Automatic annotation (TrEMBL):
Family: Belongs to the isocitrate and isopropylmalate dehydrogenases family. LeuB type 1 subfamily.
Identification of the protein by name: 3-isopropylmalate dehydrogenase
Annotated organism of origin: Salinicoccus cyprini
Function, as annotated: Catalyzes the oxidation of 3-carboxy-2-hydroxy-4-methylpentanoate (3-isopropylmalate) to 3-carboxy-4-methyl-2-oxopentanoate. The product decarboxylates to 4-methyl-2 oxopentanoate.
HAMAP family, sorted: LeuB_type1
Length: 366
């Protein structure tokens, strides 16, 4: 298969992790006789520096024409004092909105060799497998009005949703639960927010269409607590934009590092965007030590969801898993007796496990 992939490395560690994604995809292409054509474009602070805006039109056009988009990360202290419209993060929010990517799927799946890397008790995290379905193009991130009054003495951000926006993400949550173990937790703040009360209403209405899914509602504050005291309680979590943002970083603690989490931003059909959950990690950028596995696992999600390449995606996941089983990891993971390698080192180990020989061994042994 020939696929056109837009690469948006962005800022900070974005360039370093994108190199890993690209190398992995090139290896998959040669092993499976595919052709991935890469088109690199600017976004975020990098685009501000080069073109004066965080999301150049060329970048949007390229993404719209692509089969899929991979994004590294945006943002950093250099641009933190820019006006709201000229911040790197506006580029990311803009591309999500322009592509209509209303559903952000964030799997939180622990790898066996990393159970001790979590600061949480092993019996809590061992075998935990959660999917956070985060609404991505509405809520506080996009509501109007938003800004500062002329005298600079008051500010406003607006949390708004239409019923239709809630319906389509809730449906995604139910569909995901149906394909997994059939349990959906809807997270809201219905004791305070009108938007959450409508959210709850929609979930209850939709539940009738999915009789095989058990549904529960959980307030976001106690959900945050339960996520790290009893994570195995959860299967699929569906929630609004900001709650999903916060809960997914929290949930990454279950896996040992924020650097492990991949994500897929999708709409009902059409182009998808794949990116790790973490940010540009300015504190470690340029040192060659960033964990690229969240980015690499995002390429696996791209192969599966955008290209229907299930087998190839599984091979990437297997290669990551075997690399960790061999004891290799980057320094963000605290594994007793493990072997700390740098970014290039871990990418190299994953590639070794993707090579022809290891793939044929895995086929023979399966
Ligand atoms: P962050 O996710 O960049 O980093 C939080 C902490 O986790 C840091 O200590 C960092 O070193 C560490 N970390 C994150 N990813 C890692 C990885 N792959 N390997 C090893 N360590 C890793 O969050 P932050 O520091 O709050 O934000 C920094 C910048 O990133 C901000 O400008 C923010 O807006 C931006 N951001 C961008 C995205 C995105 O582009 N999708 C996501 C989150 C934050
Ligand atoms: C994420 C990030 C973004 C978000 C920021 C950088 C706009 O935190 O992708 O999780 O809040 O969506
Ligand atoms: Mn976030």
């Amino acid at each position: 298969m020939r696929k056109e992939v837009v690469l948006l490395p962005g800022d900070g560690v974005g360039q370093e992790i994108m190199k890993g994604a690209r190398t992995v995809l090139e290896t998959v292409a040669s092993e499976y006789d595919h052709e991935f054509v890469f088109h690199e474009h600017a976004i975020g602070g990098d685009a501000i520096d080069r073109y004066g805006v965080p999301l150049p039109d060329d970048t949007v056009k390229a993404c719209e024409a692509a089969d899929a988009v991979l994004l590294g990360a945006v943002g950093g202290p250099k641009w933190d004092d820019m006006p709201a419209d000229k911040r790197p993060e506006k580029g990311l929010l803009g591309i999500r909105k322009r592509l209509g990517l209303f559903a952000n799927l964030r799997p939180v799946q622990g790898f066996g060799p990393l159970v001790h890397a979590s600061p949480l008790k092993t019996e809590l995290v061992d075998g935990c497998d959660i999917l956070i379905v985060r609404e991505l193009t509405g809520g506080l991130y996009f509501g109007e009005p938003s800004g500062r009054s002329e005298d600079g003495q008051s500010v406003v951000d607006t949390l708004s949703y239409t019923r239709e926006e809630i319906e389509r993400i809730v449906e995604k949550g139910f569909e995901a639960a149906q394909m997994r173990s059939g349990h959906l937790t809807s997270v809201d703040k219905a004791n305070v927010l009108e938007s959450s009360r409508m959210w709850r209403e929609v979930v209850n209405e939709k539940a009738a269409d999915y009789p095989d899914v058990t549904v529960e509602h959980q307030l976001v504050d106690s959900a945050a607590m339960k996520l790290i005291t009893n994570p195995k309680h959860f299967d699929v979590i569906v929630t609004e934009n900001l709650f999903g943002d916060i809960l997914s970083d929290e949930a990454s603690v279950l896996t040992g590092s924020l650097g492990m989490l991949p994500s897929a931003s999708v709409r009902t059909d059409g182009v998808g965007l794949y990116e790790p959950v973490h940010g540009s990690a300015p504190d470690i950028a340029g040192q060659g030590i960033v964990n690229p596995l969240g980015m690499i696992l995002s390429t696996a999600m791209m192969l599966k969801y955008s290209f229907g390449m299930e087998k190839e995606a599984e091979e990437i996941e297997r290669a990551v898993s075997q690399t960790l089983a061999d004891g290799y990891h980057t320094r963000d993971l605290d594994v007793e007796g493990g072997k700390v390698v740098d970014t290039e080192g871990i990418i190299g180990k994953v590639i070794d496990h993707l090579s022809t020989e290891s793939i044929s061994n895995s086929i023979c042994s399966s």
